Amino acid sequence: MKGKAGMLVACLVLCMAFAFGGSLFTPVEGSAWYYEILNKPDWNPPDWLFPPVWTVLFLMMGVSLWLVVRDGFDRPGVKLASALFGVQLLLNLGWSAAFFGLQSPMLGFIEILILWLAIVMTIVRFTAISRPAALLLVPYLLWVSFASYLNFTIWQLNP
Q1: CATH number, residue 98
Q2: Is-contact 140 60, C-beta < 8 A?
Q3: What is the structure's pLDDT at 150?
Q4: What is the pTM for the complete model shown?
Q5: C-alpha span between 113 and 107 (Å, rounded)
């Protein structure tokens, strides 16, 4: 597969690889820290909701990246926008490692704030290249905004 279709597949595979990486830190049913020790608010979404939401968001992220890079990296702003996208992918993975892997809601909260800022910066840079690409990242920003508040609340419930 070559050309733009191959680039789309590469962008989707990249994003789904990071989704998979983050899922390696997610606790399995019965994990003591998350399911028995950690205090969560009553409004915490049910566990079944997270996989489909994150799958859709990562697919949208992949399409968004493709809209930015599909015509090549030589266009003005594409390299910086792509680099910012890569940073936010790493930060997304870092949140899973901090919150679940290190079992630290505090570190997770610090990480997710930096992630939120990186997403905003990515959206700003993507807007200059492709408005549809930027708009595809808005649901991701909204979900991470909600997740930030949830993370903060969990941190406060577990001093």
Answers
A1: 1.20.1260.100
A2: yes
A3: 98
A4: 0.94
A5: 10
User: Which residue type sits at 135?
Assistant: L
Alpha-carbon span 97 to 83, nearest angstrom: 21
The tally of CA atoms less than 13 A away on the side-chain side of residue 28 is: 1
Position 32 scores a pLDDT of 87
Which amino acid appears at position 121 of this protein? Answer: M
| Structural domains in the chain (count) | 1
Question: Is residue 48 a contact partner of residue 95, using CB atoms and an 8 Å limit?
Answer: no
Q: DSSP label at 39?
A: -
Task: Go through the chain and tell me how many residues it has.
Answer: 159
Q: Give the pLDDT confidence of 28-47 residue by residue, as tens digits.
A: 776 789 988 999 999 999 98
Q: How many CA atoms within 13 Å lie on the side-chain side of 29?
A: 3
Q: Residue 29 carries which side chain, given as an amino acid letter?
A: E
What are the phi and psi torsion angles at 102 (to 5°)? -90, -5
Structural domain for 104, as ranges: 3-157
Sign of the C-alpha dihedral computed for residues 57, 140, 11 and 71 taken in this order: positive
